[in-house]
Amino acid sequence: MASQKKQAHLLGFIQHGVNSHATGMWRHPKDKVNWDWSRPPYWQHMARTMERGLFDAMFIADELAPYNNYEKSSDACVKYAVQCPTHEPSTLVPIITTATKHLGVGVTLSTAFEHPYSMVRRLSSLDHLSDGRIAWNIVSSYSKSEWDAYGAEMSDRGHRYERMEEYMELCYQLWDSWAPDAIIADKDSGIFADPAKVKEINFEGEFFRSKGRSFCYRSPQGRPVLWQAGSSDRGRDFAAKHAEAIFAVHPNVDRMRQYSDDLNQRLVKTFNRPPGSVKLIYGLQCIVGESRAHAQEKYEQIRANIPLEGALAWISGHFGPDFSTYDLDEYVQNIEIPGIQGLFESIIYAKGGDPITVKEAALYYAMGMGMPITVGTASDIADTLEYYMDEGGADGFMLVATYTPGCFEEFVDLVVPELQRRGRYRTTYPGTTLRENLLAD
Ligand SMILES: Cc1cc2nc3c(=O)[nH]c(=O)nc-3n(C[C@H](O)[C@H](O)[C@H](O)COP(=O)(O)O)c2cc1C
């Protein structure tokens, strides 16, 4: 019976910039027509569109500086708008949440250069101002360009995860600093809050120290929904320990299933959490048309916008090596990468495990960050979503933009009703906060 089947969660994946995750998208004739991405109306319209489609959230990716490792320069990123320019993501939150009532916002904020004290203060303030609709995508800055921009020496993955563990420990203490009933606000006695219920933190760690009380009282969700996208062995452990939702990219259903099984095993065996207690949200690129031929035509048009040099600069930025020094026909399989392991695997398995050349990898990745691409009618796309949920263990999908806001309008108008007709998607928001909506079945 349709009603017993898992229902999809949907999020719109974007960046506070011109290009998001489809390299060359700004060139598309339908991209941002009459919209200025650096001004509020564009974001308000996109937020209202996603809310019309009952999405859990708009999810804003981020990095802190243009990549600079392709030809040892950020020239190609600037030239082809490879995730550049990108503006600060949390500034969008009040704009999005005042234009909507239910839509959440996932905001990517790096732990690398911000002290946990101010991170907690910022996120709690945003959780208050949005009535509890914030998620935090916890990242630690994987790109050397970010460290260069901040004038710091880049640390390795292991060190970053160790530091992030301690970071979270302090964040939890700060979030829990104010008891839910700490505020009395008794005008007669003049007592606003009970100091006994506002814990003073005295944290002495290897990486951080903090002495004092959190400056924000408890926010509607207590803490933002914790989100993670680390995919290395260490990253998966971090996610299984801390995350309430995970964003992962896998190019096919077998890899999705392996990841889902692995994550659920870690939850149960290592962290004593129930299986299925972390929502697995998989990246997906959908190109919907009135007919299959129409959708295919749209796919070709999107692909034609990708500049090869921009694509190479992007994989250099995400994975670390300077791909200008590799032959375009060389296979990527055996290259050791310091960057985003999980996303690198998406291209390694893009051809089902068959060798893939540097050129193929770059062009595939530049379409939509290595996400599987589904091209077809609304019914074809709904079939794919059902398949990934039933066979791949997906709880929902991070929909990567192709051109904006049009791709989200089309998805909401065409695919959402089809999913609802099949009983595979909500017809109303089940809760008030993002956590209530996202963690609902
Ligand atoms: C699907 C996906 C999306 C990610 N998005 C971001 C991002 O927006 N900003 C960022 O700094 N890191 C991002 N990352 C990087 C990870 O959060 C993580 O810090 C990095 O991959 C290093 O950890 P790993 O080697 O365990 O994957 C993303 C990773 C994945 C797999």
TrEMBL record:
It comes from the Bacteria. The keyword Transcription regulation does not apply. Gene3D superfamilies: Luciferase-like domain (3.20.20.30). Belongs to the NtaA/SnaA/DszA monooxygenase family. It holds the Pfam family Bac_luciferase. Keywords: Flavoprotein, FMN, Monooxygenase, Oxidoreductase. This is LLM class flavin-dependent oxidoreductase. InterPro entries: Diverse_substr_monoxygenases, Luciferase-like_dom, Luciferase-like_sf, NTA_MOA. Residues 39-392 form the Luciferase-like domain.
